[in-house]
Amino acid sequence: MSETSTYTVVGMTCGHCVASVSEEVGAIAGVENVDVDLASGRVTVTSGSPVDEAQVKAAVEEAGYALAPTA
Amino acid sequence: MSETSTYTVVGMTCGHCVASVSEEVGAIAGVENVDVDLASGRVTVTSGSPVDEAQVKAAVEEAGYALAPTA
């Protein structure tokens, strides 16, 4: 069974940005798939077990972007 | 002695775009230096001998961008 979590990333402007975020988030242990939508900034993370949001935040920041503040 | 030519590239939105253009244009035979300004799109090419504009155009397009139409 897989867990799916969705985040919103701000600051991505092009396909290279998408690739950078995908690469960093995809490198988190347990992550099986990362889907990034450039237009909306929506990042969907599929993993075998729940991934700590702090790890996702760190990966996004490592790529050079930021998570949108949660409402 | 070096030749310097300046072009305007449209479509670059971030540092990754700058890096892609620099890499492709820098790979043209004879090119010694490429300076790219993201904000203006200005690309300055320094080479040992004049570089054919068609080669610069092709390199920019290979990177996924376009030369601005000349006035």
Automatic annotation (TrEMBL), chains A, B:
One Pfam entry name: HMA
Domain of life: Bacteria
Domain HMA per the UniProt entry, residue ranges: 3-68
Molecular functions per Gene Ontology: copper ion binding
InterPro entries: Cu-bd, Heavy-metal-associated_CS, HMA_dom, HMA_dom_sf
Keyword field contains Ion transport: no
BP terms from Gene Ontology: copper ion transport
Keywords: Metal-binding
Protein's recorded name: Heavy metal transport/detoxification protein
Species for this entry: Intrasporangium calvum (strain ATCC 23552 / DSM 43043 / JCM 3097 / NBRC 12989 / NCIMB 10167 / NRRL B-3866 / 7 KIP)
Lineage of the organism: Bacteria, Bacillati, Actinomycetota, Actinomycetes, Micrococcales
